[in-house]
Amino acid sequence: MATELEEVRPAVLGSWPTPLEAAPQLARALGLGVTDLWVKRDDLTGLGGGGNKVRKLEWLCGAALARGADTLVTCGARQSNHARLTAAAGARLGLRVVLVLAGSARDPGDGNVALDGLLGASVVWAGDVAHEALDPLASDILDQLRQKGARPELIPYGGSSVLGARGYVACGRELLHQAPDLVTVVTALGSGGTMAGLVHALGAGRVLGVDCGAIEQPAETVRTLVGGLAGAAPDPTALRIRLDHVGAGYAVLTEPVMAALTLAARTEGLILDPIYTGRALAGLMSAVAEDEIKPGERTILLHSGGLPGLFGHPGAVARSVGALTEFS
To answer: Tell me, what CATH number does 77's domain have?
Structure first.
């Protein structure tokens, strides 16, 4: 596996390194020191609205190009950030993109869905299904494309594979250069690749993942991916994962997440999304309240992007609009 990974040459899709910015007002609001909290701005990766998937797609698209692919196929939720950025990567590289998405064409075409269309992707609507049901549909699309003479490449759900996680090994190394004294990096845990790459680069003790409910076995998924990167999987008890912010489900806005979105916006002008980064901050807030993250420690919130998804989330939009006050 190591030899195969070393032979892949990543495509150039993003702008690196991304900034590491202080968040003194947010730190103070959480009860931390004003120099304790920093934000790794992986929402500013440069391609297609930005986000953490760009780092993964550089490696995955590099492998696809090396194999002579002319089409990228991937799957995800209706408001998938990964699908949007795969569409953007395909546009940048001159590749056709087919997205297999949960939901229906009758659903609102807002948020990431609007950008999927703008970027030129084709969509196969899978209906109201769990993400595990999308893989067989994507395989069928691959077969259909091959029968038509195309050379398709499957990009895994969320871009999370051992190869895709290499992008967050690089991010971890960036962070060590930018903040060698970092104690904890807090990240949303979706499909697992982002956390896995960070764990490989920084060690399990310095990475706190906040589960978003995107997959059924987040800890085992991260452990398997780290094992693929390192040659040996870490002790499951070494992984720091919070499972307490999933709430009623992946797409459901919770009160702690809405509070996190509001606090970030009103202290730092920082816009998070209700599925991933909002949960990451809510988890960080819980960790501070429980003394898992302490004042005096350099703590980094990974801003993994996802802003377009905010505009595709009716609950978050309604709550945000409802917070407007009239001048008097």
So the answer is: 3.40.50.1100
Q: Coil, strand, or helix at residue 301?
A: strand
Q: Is 328 within a domain?
A: no
CA separation for the pair 179, 323 (Å, rounded): 36
Q: Residue 214 belongs to what domain range?
A: 2-51+160-322
Catalytic positions are 80
Name which of 81, 73, 74, 123 is nearest 103 in CA terms: 123
Name the region of 43 (left: φ>0; alpha: ψ -120 to 50; beta: rest). alpha
The letter for the amino acid at 236 is: P
pTM: 0.96
Cα 45 to Cα 53: distance, rounded to the nearest angstrom: 9
Alpha helix locations (H) across 130-217? Answer: 134-147, 162-178, 193-202
What is the mean pLDDT of each successive set of 10 residues along the chain, which is 328 residues long? 65 98 98 98 98 98 98 97 98 98 93 97 94 91 98 96 98 98 98 98 98 96 97 93 97 97 98 98 98 98 97 96 94
CB atoms within 10 A of CB 129: 11
Instruction: Compute the distance between CA of residue 47 and CA of residue 313 in angstroms, rounded to an integer.
Output: 22
Q: Are residues 79 and 215 in the same domain?
A: no
- Strand partners for 122: 98
Strands 20-22, 37-41: pairing kind: antiparallel
Alpha helices by DSSP H, listed for 69-217, are 81-93, 112-118, 134-147, 162-178, 193-202
Question: Where are the extended beta strands (E) located within 146-261?
Answer: 152-154, 182-189, 207-211, 240-242
